[in-house]
Amino acid sequence: MASLLAVSLLARIAIMAVAMALTMYVVLGLHMSYVAVGGVDGALTAGMALGGPLLGRVIDRRGARFVLLVTVVAQFVFWLSVPALPYAVLLVAAFPAGLLMVPVPLVARQAIAAMTTAGQRQAAFALESVQGELSYLVGPPTVILCATIVAPGVVAWGSGAALVAGGLGIALLDPPMRRADEAVPDTADRPRRREWLGRPMTAVLLMAFGTTLLLAGTDLAIVARLQDAGQMTWATVVVAVYGTSSVVGGLVYGSLSRPLPTWLLLGLLGAATVPAGLAPGWPGLCVAGVCAGLLTAPTLSTAADAVSRLAPDGARGEATGLQSSALSAGFALGSPIIGAVIDASAPAVGFVAAGLAGLGGALVGYLLSRRVPVPVPVPVPVPASGRARVSALEPCGAGTQPVG
Q: Per the UniProt record, which residue ranges are transmembrane (predicted)?
């Protein structure tokens, strides 16, 4: 477990780095607009969202090492050729690159579910969520710093090399994807999707989508709020406070003895985000960041834990892939949705919209995850004469003795 967490952390930092490296290359290397950046990032994210369940299904059938090696080769070819591609070709190539992105979070979550007991899983998934926050704090700033020193094409090569190295490292570890007591199901015996993709799983996926939509919208609202106040230079500090608080919250949550419902944590996160728009400048946003950040990693970790518990044997990879797709879709849609709200109103309203999105996701998740009571049939009274006629038709020994 220690080796898996260490190598997957480096690989996840590389994933965050390549996304920023692609942005820096389009802006600084190709001298294109941010609209062009949005096109490439959107194609990459769309590919990742669609590729999650597909790669997860292949992992269920062929194992993690096969998928890791295939995706590593695909990423090696893509990032080696990025500095030589014109924008139109890069835009088209970004989609298959996202579709075959090295599935580091998917493999790590499935391995955690296989390598831990029920009592250890909460702490392990909390550490996995902390990894996501650390990769966000380390990967993009490192790329931005390197882009100011060397050419953007070189940064793209270096980021791609780090991603390939991380994928190869996990492939060499080859962590188990199933528990030791879990049999490998035949293709004919694999559970059908409609058997496990019911109300509880749908609720978790929707809450995962709502969480990342809230986070993406919050990031955009922070930038808009500080730009409106003329304090844009403090954006890095505010984002760092959010990320550091999330790391602390994940570690604290992992030490708790009992898990909390995903809908409750998401609802608290949304409620803590709504008043951030009233914060007076960057110091107030830092205070709001502490309150909301402490709930971020716990919300993400409890969603991953819920997916691992709800997914049946033989479909855990596909279920984890759907979770990754839901997270990617939330990140992809959060910025344009909250951006439209900010453009139509004010930066402070962006926090309100992001928080309400989280509250809405929590409410829908709660309603879907509620157990539907099974109606108990009420016995219909039968007249005495009727009972005699019914019992007369029963064979001897089946119930009431026949009436002679």
A: 31-51, 63-81, 87-108, 202-226, 232-253, 260-276, 348-368
Please state, in angstroms and rounded to a whole number, the distance separating the CA atoms of residues 312 and 332. 28
The domains of the chain, with CATH numbers, are: 1-178 (1.20.1250.20), 193-370 (1.20.1250.20)
The tokens describing 67, both together, are 């998928």
Task: Kindly indicate the confidence band of residue 41, based on its pLDDT and cuts at 50, 70 and 90.
Answer: confident
Q: What angle do CA 76, 135, 176 make, to 5 degrees?
A: 70
Quick check: 322 and 314 in contact, CB under 8 A?
A: no
Q: Report the C-alpha gap between 50 and 53 in whole angstroms.
A: 7
Give a three-class secondary structure readout of 151-199: CHHHHHHHHHHHHHHHHHHHHHHCCCCCCCCCCCCCCCCCCCHHHHCCH
> Per-residue pLDDT averaged across 144-154, rounded?
82
- State mean pLDDT over 85-104: 90
